[in-house]
Amino acid sequence: MNHTILAKPSEQQLKWQDLEFGMFCHFGINTFCDQEWGEGTDSPELFNPTQFDALQWVRSAKLAGAAYFVLTAKHHDGFCLWPTETTDYSVKSSPWRNGQGDVVREVADACKQEGIRFGLYLSPWDRHEPCYPDKEAYDDFYANQLTELLTQYGPLVELWFDGAGSHGREYDWRRIMGLVKQYQPDAMVFNMGAPTIRWVGNEDGVAPYPCWNTAESAKLSMYTQDMAAWLPETPAWVPAECDVPIRKDRWFWHPNDEHTLRSLDNLLDIYYRSVGHGCTLLLNLAPDNRGLLPELDVNRLIEFTDEIKRRFSNPIAATDGEGDSVLLSFVAETDVNHVILMEDIAHGERIRSYVLEAEQQGQWIELVKGSAVGHKKIDRFETVRTKQMRVRVTASVDKALIRSFAAYNC
Predict the structure, then answer these.
(1) CB-CB contact of 70 with 160 (8 Å)
(2) Element of type H or E holding 258
(3) Which range is the signal sequence, renumbered to this chain (predicted)?
């Protein structure tokens, strides 16, 4: 056993990792133009979601068990979903609500009403703003936009800074982080500046295994091999978030695109390889040009999360413990094919390797070997019939602390 100073999460990071599952919403001018990346030239007149219903979005997220909700306040095209003072390229120049609407406000209010934490995406890259080529002028512009969002919409759980399009560009991250610290000190910061959470490195929603909670770097975006330039004060503990759209390769809604909807099996595989690898899953559903989440997408979302609940809501038995071996006993012999382990990560990620075993006829049979446990590790294996199981920690940094050891028959 090595006695080493371990990185540990902040209180805010611990709370965020316990959220496990959130919903992303990409919505904006692209929704009305059948495109993923606008160039900032589409007329605000096109933005008119005549049946817009933020409560329908957020209630769908709540029904699915999502604990937080992240909205694209401004994508790369520069169109703002709130009536910003910084530009006319926003909802106030659209026919929607006669130019008096505020998508960010309505979604923030819906999240508050439904008890879901609210987060915002604000693209640093802006293809519309004329001052973008002038670094100093745009740094002021962006800081002003960010300040509006940080100060007008209540507490934020997460700020999503997308690195796409920003290859070779340096923003004033020290200033940006200062604003976040001043106005939303509890918000997680995604992958840029001095992040407290990092991008997993793909848009497939899956994490490698092991996926440790400590990192010194992460990829900037899908479109370059560059690594994000983090400030020196970035913490050592930077857990990963896995983002993925429910329609393959489609973050925004497109007409006649239902064939891209992910299957239930695909979504379950994503869950096992995101949440089941200790990460947080952020699943995107895109509202359509009516301003509603399509029924097909919502039904698939609920089908997916209902199946997760069916599998994992009621363990056969569960315990906690510490040290090199923790035993889990059942009232009678029973079939088991899944185990969920959770480490008490408040004290750092101590477990470096473990073996999961089942007792049969007085012998311990090896089922699974693993390395990282972290926030959560889901192990599945061929069904075994047993009256007790154990996890043996075969390598650790200081004493292993197991928050939960739970067995299931799915």
Answers:
(1) yes
(2) none
(3) none
